[in-house]
Amino acid sequence: MTQPGPPPGRAACYRHSDRATGIACTRCGRPICPDCMRQASVGFHCPECVREGQASVRRPRGQSGVQRFAARWGAATTTLVALNVAAYLVTVIAALPNGGGVMQNDASTLFREFSLFPACVTGEFRIQGICDGGGDQPWRLLSSAFLHFGLFHLVMNMLALLVLGADLERYLGRARFVVVFLVSAVSGGAAVALFADPISQTVGASGGVFGLLGAAAVVIVHNKGDLRPLVSVLVLNAIISFLPGISLLGHLGGLIGGMLAAVVLVYGRRSTALQITGLAVLVAAAVVPVLLQGPTLV
Fold first, then answer.
1. Per-residue pLDDT tens over the stretch 169-224
2. What domains can be seen in the chain, in order of their start residue?
3. What are phi and psi of 220, to 5 degrees?
4. What is the pTM of this model?
5. DSSP 191-246
């Protein structure tokens, strides 16, 4: 049995030869019947053109866990946490040949080379097995802020960094937030280098974290907010700073450095030149006295 064709003068659907139609696909021009036509923004498309169009559309890729984490806590805050964690893992691996491990990462030579020993920063020095050469090592003021004694020390500082950093980064912006953290870390290191025992060893991001506390206080005052919740946190952390093994000097220096850096950035926000000059003066005020302190021979 043969199926009848379309009436004379009318085209047949390209998929159904027995169906006459006066509609054609706006993309390829093939005649299509009502069952085959697909609504488009302009006219109708045939099923094949619809499939081709869908195949050419790039579907959005889902965010990775790291991307979601950065979106929640801030890209700069996440980066600082990642750098601290990476430094910790490197020191753990470097400590293994010396009998160290996850909780004894300070057994590595690398850990000692980047820790803050005041005697290694000021003038000519000699500490057997740590800084045997001559010359200054001012980078220890900052490098020590990315090292931690064991896993518990790291976790506590990183949790504090996340909690304080998320909101502060949104307010200051990524670059200014990082600057506040770094200036605070250097200021905390300078306080230790100037006033602590020359052969004491200090590490940790707490100087930078205390600087973020100070910066948060400046932001709250600037916006006429309620300072009482932050004061409670400051008092609690001040009490902790007096516990054995905690660097009170590092915390105090970081707090002052962070507050002053925030003052420069918040109240001088209309002038980039003023901000840069103010921050440069702060860093110089912290580092220069350390370098001029004079030689320490041990």
1. 999 999 999 999 999 999 999 999 999 988 889 999 999 999 999 999 999 999 99
2. 11-55 (no CATH), 74-297 (1.20.1540)
3. -65, -45
4. 0.75
5. HHHHHS-TT--B--THHHHHHHHHHHHHHHHHTT---HHHHHHHHHHHHHTTSTT-
